[in-house]
Specification:
Elements (H helix, E strand, L loop, with lengths): L6 H5 L8 E5 L4 E4 L8 E5 L5 E8 L2 E5 L5 E5 L3 E2 L3 E4 L7 E4 L6 E5 L4 E7 L3 E6 L2 E6 L3 E2 L13 H19 L2
Antiparallel strand pairs: 1-4, 1-7, 2-3, 4-5, 5-6, 8-11, 8-14, 9-10, 11-12, 12-13
Length: 176
Amino acid sequence: MSPNFSASSADQNSGFKIPRFVSTKSDKSNLRKGANTDYPIQLTYTVENFPLEIIAEYEIWRKVVDVDGNQGWMHKSLLHGNRYGIIKTSHDQPAQIYNKPEGIIIGIIGNKNIVKINKCFSLWCKISFTKYKGWVNKQNVWGVYTNEEFNMPFYQFLINFYWRIILVISDFTQDD
């Protein structure tokens, strides 16, 4: 039987925010029906750094959901906080990798590929994948929340402001 808990008591286990994204530590991580090794294994993740979303906690167990909607419990020792994502476009086409947000396309990456997420801004995430390091549109990455931003330099707002000014000046001078 799965543990009985409220959202507020679940938040107190690790002290980290719920929900949040994590990844598997190894290439063999079991997802169980309940929060105990006595519960049967539902499935085994056979890929290291497979992204999962923690939606609840109970003692040393984390209730997770994956990109396909599979839910179950995993021991916390099987997870780490390094950010990885899965490319998931809303169409059958691969996602494009850019040299900078809204820049030049430097590559493509197909659905279901796992990428390291280095940082995310409001609409873009910088990722690493094999030989590529670049930017993908955040809507094409499962493993980051729509409004989530992280690993941004403290001066990023100045950079954003600069580029907005450049765009306004560019629009103004093109009207002449």
